[in-house]
Amino acid sequence: SMKELPKNLKLVIFDLDGTLINSTSLWRDIDEEFFARRSLKVPASYGEEIAHVGLKRAAEITAERYCPNETPEDILHEWEEMSIDAYLHKITLKNHAKELIELLYSKGIIITLATANSKTLYEPCLKRLDILKYFDFVIDVNSCKEGKNSPEIYDKIVQKYDVKKDETIIFEDLLEPIITASKGGYFVVGVYDENSVRNINDNIKYSSIYIRDFNEIISMILNN
Fold this sequence. Notes:
The protein is α/β, with parallel strands linked by helices.
C-alpha cells in the first residue's frame, strides 16, 4: 500500500552511504585492489574475519594472517589513502538524487544529512558531486551517544529546526536505521541498495514507503 507523503513537508534527513551515493561496494573494491597489489586474490573467509571489528583491528588481522612482512599501521594508512581517493574522485551519486535534492531545495524544504561517515570524506565528495551547497546542516554520529541505534540523531535535527516528526522525511538504505527511525515515529523512505540489502522484505516492511529510484519520490512530491 502506498503511503501518502507528509502533507506539510518541511524537513528531509538523508543518510549518505548507500542512500545518496554508490559507496557500499567501496570496501570490497579496496580489499580486491589491496590484495591485487600483492598479486593475491581476496581470501575466501576474509570478509567475515574483518566485517565487524573496525579498521584498526582489521589491519592487525590482515598483517598477522596475510601480510606478515607489513605493519598494521602501514596497511591502515594504505586503506585510508584508497578510501580518500575514492570519495575524492570515483564515487557517484545514485540515479536522480541530484534532481530530488534540487526539487526539495526549490520548494524551500530544509535538507540535512545524518551520516556515520567522517567530514574528511563526505565534504569533498559532496562538493565534487555539486550538492554540498544544498545541505543546511550535517550531523555525524560522532556527536551522538548511540549512533543510529537510537533516534537521537534524528531527534536532534528536528529539535534544531523546531519542526514536527510528521513534517519530516528520513531516507535510509540500511535495515537497522530504518527500524530505528520508524520506531521513533518518523516517516521513513527506504532506499534500495544492492550491496547493503540483506533481506529486502524486512526493509520494505519497516519503511513507510520503499523505493528503488529517487524518481519515484520526485513524482510523489510533484503530485503532493
